[in-house]
Amino acid sequence: MIVARTRTSLHEARARLRGPVGAVPTMGALHAGHLALLRAARRREHSVIATLFVNQTQFNDPSDYAAYPRDEAADLAGFETSGVDLVFAPSVEEMYPDGFGTSIDPGPIGADLEGARRPGHFAGVATVVAKLFNLTRPTRAYLGQKDWQQTRVIDRMVQDLNLPTDLVIVPTVRDADGLALSSRNVRLSAEQRQAALSLSRGLSLAHDAWDDDERSPQALADLVKATVQAEPLATLGYAEVRHALTLEPIAAAEPPLVIAVAAEIGGVGLIDNVVLGNGLLDEIAP
Hints:
Elements: E1 2-4, H1 7-14, E2 21-26, H2 32-44, E3 47-52, H3 62-67, H4 72-81, E4 86-88, H5 92-95, H6 114-117, H7 121-136, E5 140-144, H8 148-160, E6 166-170, H9 190-211, H10 217-229, E7 234-243, E8 257-265, E9 268-276
Helix pairs in contact: 7-8, 9-10
């Protein structure tokens, strides 16, 4: 496995990779969700690139950026065990040299939900992902369902800027109790972690109601809201039912749709979702 830390060394190593090439962009702190992305890429592609960069521009709260878990040695070991061929692990100065001033505005798809809760977040995401795709030139990029709005922002950016990369969305990986895996989970105390289960419980109730033919978006969202708001340690950010691809409000809960929720627990922002619709998620078994 090659570890490149500069754009020049990345370019040289990338030129030697045989295609098709899959890319898995990460901010490190690898967990089983990241490993599922790497496995999916390894099964489908001839070569796999992983990126390791904690992108400051997508954090609207400096303390959140400072608290983001970092363990490069463990991350590199995880990449190597997963069969990654090339890791791009640049410094901040390498990604954003002096004088850097360009930012990508993702437009309306990034303005609501997480975009409203975290102003500037998706401009940071779109900008860094565009740079990473341009540098690594993947045939396909592998993203996780848990960050559903992020996948829509990146998809819009790829289409609008005519980037030659296809996206593969891999289903959310959960702990046995249903909690969606996240690098932020390590910041939760045992009590806070139990409170975090209110997100997946609420989504499960909404999904069950949808299976029982409930088609009111408001009724489904209210089930999630009530479940999270009943948890004393949780502060609800939003619970919404939207069109899965455009993220626009819908009159009836018919696929493709996403039921999305966000909450803050112990100062840690958590998100989760359920996506309903054929062909939206990778169907390769993990």
